[in-house]
Amino acid sequence: MSATGPTAVVFDLDGTLVDSEPNYYEAGRRVLARHGVPDFTWEDHAGFLGVGTRETLRTLRARYGLAAPVAELLAEKNAEYVRLARAATEAYPQMRKLAEMLYAAGCPTAVASGSSRAAIEAVLPAAGLDGLFTTLVSAEEVARGKPEPDVFLAAARRLGVRPADCTVVEDAPPGWEAARRAGMRCVAVPYLPEQADEAVAAGAGLVFRGGQREFSAERAFAWITGAA
């Protein structure tokens, strides 16, 4: 715990708490196919890991010369994703354990995600994580998405804590950079383990180089709370 009160923890959602990237890829693939892009691949999707849905669609709209406005594409993708998420979303077991440990310890916790509010509110109960987080923040509620710090700073304000008293748990480079810009500590659990050096470069204090297969709730909890 910090000298001024309990440590607050801000979790990214997609790829960190839950393995939602396959659903996001499929939702995006379906939407793009409807708009004349039939060959959107997983490798194309992987280039946007950690980037908010709105920013991703803005880039894809320009790349493929789509006529539909970003707002229309966003509504379509969110609707597809929520349908997929409600049908099947798995929480990473060690992440669930960490969230439960922090909850039991009385640490304020938030989810701060590039997903829409509707997607966050669909995923958490589908993955059995509802009730563990006191605050939810969508990047659609702030001016700028990751790697800007807005979504993390909004989470700190809503939790009533200083950014310096927050630890971010994140899986992707835009989130690690957003944590650095927010002045928050960071636990990095790379969705793509080959990006671990980027987490170190962004100043993450605890890096699980092997990603989720290496992640330990006990080790992360000890580091976050100062018990390590």
Structure description:
This protein has 228 residues and is an alpha/beta fold. It contains 10 helices and 6 strands; from the N terminus they run E-H-H-H-H-H-E-H-E-H-E-H-E-H-E-H. It has helices at 21-34, 42-46, 53-64, 70-87, 93-105, 117-126, 150-159, 173-182, 196-201, 217-225, and strands at 8-11, 109-113, 135-138, 166-170, 185-188, 206-207. The protein has a 6-stranded parallel sheet with strand order 3-2-1-4-5-6, sandwiched between helices. Helix 1 crosses helix 4 (70-87) and helix 3 packs across helix 4. The model is unreliable at 1-5 (pLDDT under 50).
Keywords:
six-stranded parallel sheet; single chain; 10 helices; alpha/beta; 228 residues; disordered N terminus; globular; 47% helix
Q: What is this entry, summarized?
A:
The chain has 228 residues and is α/β, with parallel strands linked by helices.
| Proportion of residues in extended strands | 5-15%
Distance between the termini: 11 Å
Global morphology: globular
H/E element order: EHHHHHEHEHEHEHEH
Overall radius of gyration? 17 Å
Look at the structure and give the mean pLDDT: 93
Based on secondary structure, the structural category is alpha/beta
Q: Indicate the low-confidence ranges by residue numbers.
A: 1-5
Biggest beta sheet summary: 6 strands, parallel
- How many helices? The count is 10
| DSSP summary, beta strand count | 6
Strand order of the largest sheet: 3-2-1-4-5-6
Query: What share of residues is helical?
Result: 40-55%
